[in-house]
Amino acid sequence: MTDPLDLLISRRGTLRFLVGAAGSAASLPLLAWPVSARAGTLPASGTASKSALQYQDHPKGTSSCANCANFIPGKNPDAAGRCIIVAGDISPKGWCLAYAGNG
Ligand code: SF4
Question: Per residue in 34-88, pLDDT tens?
Fold first, then answer.
């Protein structure tokens, strides 16, 4: 079974590559690159430190990583995931200053 994180990274890599390739005829030879090679150049998570954004491993009220637009879910709803802002494993029950509510 495909890891959802790998699938998301792969789709982002493909989209970024296609947008870039469409803008330059010189990049057409790059179309021969395998998708896995392109996806491998993308960061798996953000780079901000947990302490800088006051990350905590518990929700703030009803706000949590699980309902944040920056969250990349793990393999199941209780598993640690990733964040496009904060580095490292992120609990779906966590929260930080960069929280972006999903609705
Ligand atoms: S609340 Fe913070 S750590 Fe959690 S997913 Fe959102 S931005 Fe990332």
Answer: 343 344 544 578 999 999 999 999 999 999 999 999 999 999 999 999 999 999 9
Single-letter amino acid, residue 26: A
How far apart (Å, rounded) are the C-alpha atoms in residues 11 and 71?
16
Ligand 1 contacts (CB < 6 A) are 55, 65, 68, 70-71, 83, 85-86, 90, 94-96, 98-99
Q: Whose CA is nearest to atom 2 of ligand 1?
A: 96
Residues 90, 96, 101: CA angle, nearest 5 degrees? 95
CA-83 nearest atom, ligand 1: 8
pTM exceeds 0.70: no
Domain boundaries, the chain: 4-38
* Distance from Cα 86 to the centre of ligand 1, integer Å: 7
